[in-house]
Every structure is written in C-alpha cells, then in structure tokens.
Amino acid sequence: xYRFLSVVMCMKPSLLVFSLIFTIYLVIGLMQAEAKPxxxxxxxxxxxxxxxxxxxxxxxxxEYTYWKNFIERTRTCDISHKLKSVVYYCDLHxxxxxxxxxxxxxxxEKHK
Length: 112
Fold this sequence. Notes:
The chain is an alpha+beta fold. It folds into 2 domains: 1-34; 42-112, no CATH class. It is 28% helix and 49% strand.
C-alpha cells in the first residue's frame, strides 16, 4: 500500500504539469481559430420581418404607501413588462435574427 501511494505522489506533479501544458495548448488553439466567410458568400443580408410576437412578463412587485383619512396605508403594486419579439429572416443566407423590445411597463396600481 505504501509503495502504491509513493508512486501516486510521484505522478501527481507530472500529471499537474501535463494538465497545465495541455490547457495552455488548448487555449492558444482556440484563440487562433476563427470563422472565415466562404468566398462565394455575399456579405450583405436581405433581412425581412418574419414574425412579431407580444408577451406580458411578470417583473415582480413593490410596496408603496399612501395617506387616506389621515391614516398611512401600504399597498402592493404588481409590475409587468409588455415585450415585443421580432424575428427576421435572410433568404440569401438562410439566417434568422431576433430582437426584443420593451414596449411598456405596467403597474397594477395607479400611484406616483
């Protein structure tokens, strides 16, 4: 058992060095890799609006205070966001792209 542990302890530093060298090699290789456009591919896209979708998303709540009949009261206001998603399609390259816009922030209670 002692001999096995001594072999493992001797292998640990070399394994660590090997792992470090492999990691550096992998990072340098990934940094050098880059996507190059095909020679026949045009650079300009022909984006056309493909679809539009509206969605209301819950964004949490907050409490606010107000005065009624000289008494301070507290209420909870629920907040939601109305989002517009637009999908674009390029028929030249068969690519899609999308954008999301915040259309409106909706408060459940009227307060200042």
